């Protein structure tokens, strides 16, 4: 017997979970709901969401309401009377009336160890805050953001080499596998739930432009590197020096050297700026404004000859 599913999701993380459901013969995906396609880039080209691409490739119905509440799409989805509603990085609240239409359960696949990092950017914030572990939580959906009772959890370590992209890929697989292990247990009743400890709630809000600015005057070298990891490759951390904006995609901590906020190491292959704790941050991959991403060697040898040891980065 197959169980019917309506899937709600938009991102690459969502796409991995959706593909797992499609490939599992125990489930039948009735429809895919994603955010509307949005224009991206300088040319504002309309970008099809990752889940929509998968839905089209598998001849699945696609719904993309700007807002679910009160929409015709919501009425159509309720009429399907799916066994499961599954969300994973959808980007909208699912109205209670729709949640109640699931005949078995409405559940969410969230990329954090709840109640830590409720919100839109849990993977980024785990890296930004220098966490050593993270994971995936599957919970019941309720009207409040990421607040439902937890059904299952899986934890993984965060490697020192991880950035947002690599951690997204790892957790997408973890989320897919955990979901496909959890849903059959929900059908048989072979599971326990746990309420979230509200005293331990932390939030993971969307990444804004101000956060992406590297603050060498108030942050330690480790904090600078963690921010770079958490924002790589998108949207990318940035600094401004000698009237030039530079995005930074990879960096590492160096030695105790130089003055806070100043270039402390500059050679043919090395470019370091000293953070607030006196430790240098060695930049490795950068992107000057209007140019492609490149190694620091390429940047120093071909893009900028005006930098000098002692030059100061702009204050945030």
Automatic annotation (TrEMBL):
It comes from the Bacteria. Its EC number is 2.1.2.9. It catalyses: L-methionyl-tRNA(fMet) + (6R)-10-formyltetrahydrofolate = N-formyl-L-methionyl-tRNA(fMet) + (6S)-5,6,7,8-tetrahydrofolate + H(+). (6S)-5,6,7,8-tetrahydrofolate binds at residues 112-115. It holds the Pfam family Formyl_trans_N. SUPFAM superfamilies: FMT C-terminal domain-like (SSF50486), Formyltransferase (SSF53328). Keywords: Protein biosynthesis, Transferase. It is an enzyme of class 2 (transferase). Residues 206-303 form the Formyl transferase C-terminal domain. Belongs to the Fmt family. This is Methionyl-tRNA formyltransferase. It comes from Oenococcus sicerae. The lineage of its organism: Bacteria, Bacillati, Bacillota, Bacilli, Lactobacillales.
């Amino acid at each position: 017997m197959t169980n019917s599913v309506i899937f709600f999701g938009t991102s690459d993380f969502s796409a991995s979970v959706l593909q797992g459901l499609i490939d599992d013969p125990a489930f039948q995906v009735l429809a895919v709901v994603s955010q509307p396609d949005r224009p991206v880039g300088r040319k504002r080209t309309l970008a099809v969401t990752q889940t929509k691409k998968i839905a089209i490739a598998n001849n699945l119905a696609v719904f993309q309401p700007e807002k679910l509440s009160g929409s015709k799409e919501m009425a159509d989805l309720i009429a399907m009377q799916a066994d499961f509603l599954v969300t994973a990085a959808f980007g909208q609240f699912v109205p209670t009336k729709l949640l109640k239409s699931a005949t078995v359960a409405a559940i969410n696949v969230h990329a954090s160890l709840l109640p830590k990092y409720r919100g839109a950017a849990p993977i980024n914030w785990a890296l930004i805050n220098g966490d050593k572990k993270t994971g995936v939580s599957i919970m019941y959906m309720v009207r409040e953001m990421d607040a439902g009772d937890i059904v299952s959890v899986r934890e993984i370590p965060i490697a020192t080499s991880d950035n947002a992209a690599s951690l997204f890929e790892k957790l997408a697989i973890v989320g897919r596998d955990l979901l496909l292990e959890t849903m059959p247990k929900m059908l048989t009743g072979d599971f326990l739930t746990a309420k979230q400890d509200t005293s331990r709630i932390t939030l993971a809000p969307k990444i804004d432009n101000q956060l992406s600015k590297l603050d060498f005057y108030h942050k330690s070298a480790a904090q600078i590197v963690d921010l770079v990891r958490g924002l790589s490759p998108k949207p990318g951390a940035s600094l401004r020096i000698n009237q030039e904006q530079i995005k930074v995609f990879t960096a590492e901590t160096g030695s105790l050297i130089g003055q806070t906020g100043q270039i402390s190491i500059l050679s043919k292959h090395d470019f370091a700026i000293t953070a607030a704790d006196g430790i240098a941050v060695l930049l490795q991959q950068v992107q000057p404004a209007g140019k492609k991403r490149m190694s620091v060697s390429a940047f120093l040898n071909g893009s900028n000859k005006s930098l000098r040891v002692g030059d100061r980065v702009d204050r945030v």
